[in-house]
Structure formats: C-alpha cells, structure tokens
Amino acid sequence: MLIAFKLKLLLACAAGFAGPIAVPLVSDIGTHGAATEPAIVRVAPGGLSYREAGDFTRAGQQAEAPLRTMRFERPMHIMRHQVSSSDYQICVQDAACRALDRGVAIASDRPAVQVSWHDAEAYAGWLSRKTGHSYRLPSDVEWAFAAGSRFRDDGLPVDATDPSKRWIGRYERESERDLFDTTAYPFGRFGSNEHGIEDLAGNVWEWTSTCFVRSRTDAAGNTGKPTVNCGVRVAEGAHRAYVTDFIRDARAGGCAQGVPPANLGFRLVREETSWVASVSARWSKTWAARS
Questions:
Q1: Percentage of the chain exceeding pLDDT 70
Q2: Cα angle 218, 222, 228; round to 5
Q3: Phi, psi (5° rounding) for residue 141?
Q4: Contact 44, 62 (CB under 8 A)
Q5: pLDDT tens by residue, 44-83
Q6: In this predicted model, what pLDDT tens digit does every residue of 9-18 receive, in sequence order?
Q7: Backbone region of residue 61 per phi and psi (left: phi > 0; alpha: psi in -120 to 50; beta: other values)
Q8: Which pLDDT band, with edges at 50, 70 and 90, does 30 fall under?
Q9: Engineered SS bond to 210: which of 62, 77, 234, 290, CB 3.0-4.6 Å?
C-alpha cells in the first residue's frame, strides 16, 4: 500500500507542479580523499514558536496547524553549510552512497543537490562510521530552531466556508518567489542567520527526518489517531515542502503540495556524546584500522 501511495503522489504532483528539467552545470569531476569533520555551529539552548508540520482537519474541513511553544534545553550542533558535492562524492567512491546525477557540479564549495532522503540517510551513516561521531538528519522542529529568523511560518488562516482559499493563497505566495533558479551556488550566497549557519532558506531545500502526518479532529474537538506516512518526508527551505522519500528532483514529480523545491540537499546534526564515549569510539576506530 505504501508503494501505491508513493506512485499516486508522484503522478499527481508531476501532473500539477512539474517544473523544467535541470540543465547540467558541469561535467562530473573526480574527487579523491578521506572523510573529514565538517564545520559545526553550536546553537545555544532556547525556545521558539513552531507550527507543526502535516495536514490537519477538523470535522472533515481543512484546519490550521497548531502553533506550539517549544523549548530546547540542550545546545544543538549542526553543520554550518549543507553537505558539499565533493564530500558526498567521497562517499560515492567508497561505495556507500548512490552517485550524483551528471548535471551536479562536484566542488568543495557547492552543495550536493538532487539527492533523495535515502541518499542523505546513507551519507549520514557513512560519515558516522568514518569519523566516530554520530551524524543524522535534523527533525523539522530542530531545523526550524536552528534556522531562527530564516524559518518562515507557513500557516495561513482557514475560511470555514471555503477551505480551498487557503491552498490558493499558499500557492500564490510561493509563486511570487524565484523558486526555479536551480543553480548550485557556492556556499555563502544566501548569507548567514543569527547563529552563523549559512544558506538557510535559499534555493536548496533540506531533508529532515520528520514524516508526513495527517491529523483529524471531530466537531467536538476530539482528536483521532493520526495517520503517519514515512514514505513522505518534510523538506525545509524558502517554504515547507512534503516530498516522497525516493525523489531526487521534486520539480519532475514527487512533491505533495505547493510549489516544488528547486533543489534537494541536506545538512546534518552531530550528536554530542560524553568524553568517555567519544574517546572509546575513537580508540576502537584506530584499533580496527591497525588490525
């Protein structure tokens, strides 16, 4: 059933929102080297107002997503830049990642784009094994917290008499942005936020670990069991997008609603472990390499 749902979503999105196919930037360039620790930004503990991701209905009618106050009690450590195409290429050469499309420029100062959620997960696992640190995709709320002022609340009021106005309003708002500039620019093109994290909400949408959720509330306010579909994941950028997990280019199909992302890329969170655990992991890695 999940495969059938993905195919339906892919066909529906391709029919409604497909964009032009990307023109190759440069030919593939060979990159050789070893995995290195990426530049990491420490985001201090703090709070945010966060509108939940997903689809919400009340008494069968479209409803606004809940706006909640969230608090992070521990600092978060996240990549300063998106994963570069040259770093991703090392994973490819190590036979741990799927090759990038031929149109993607391979360079140390450019993001890896046109990658699927599965590609991002594979890279995170490979980098974790190579460095001895634990890397993973951020959740949607973690991405929003790290993005700070770059995070845009995409909530729109719902007209109970005509819920379709909400979708029309969202589409018009997103269409006003230049979302079809697919150039993979060098890092820094879209500036830094107040935490020093670069290129958030530029023209690269970033995969998160958050699954698409459909929540229902009846007329009396009773909430039913939500429907969770992890075959569709949240991607964050200039607006929130819901994209089928195996899609590499959402402009050619696979987006769930709204204007599709111009590029799909990712950055990772690094889990900070205790000093003892960190030393133990590095010792084990060194011993294995000598054996």
A1: 71
A2: 80
A3: -70, -35
A4: no
A5: 999 999 988 888 888 777 778 888 899 999 999 999 999 9
A6: 443 343 333 3
A7: beta
A8: very low
A9: 234
What is the phi/psi pair of residue 57, to 5°? -130, 150
Distant-in-sequence, close-in-space partners of 101: CB < 8 Å, separation ≥ 6: 22, 114, 248, 249
State the fold for domain 2-290.
paralog of FGE (formylglycine-generating enzyme) (3.90.1580)
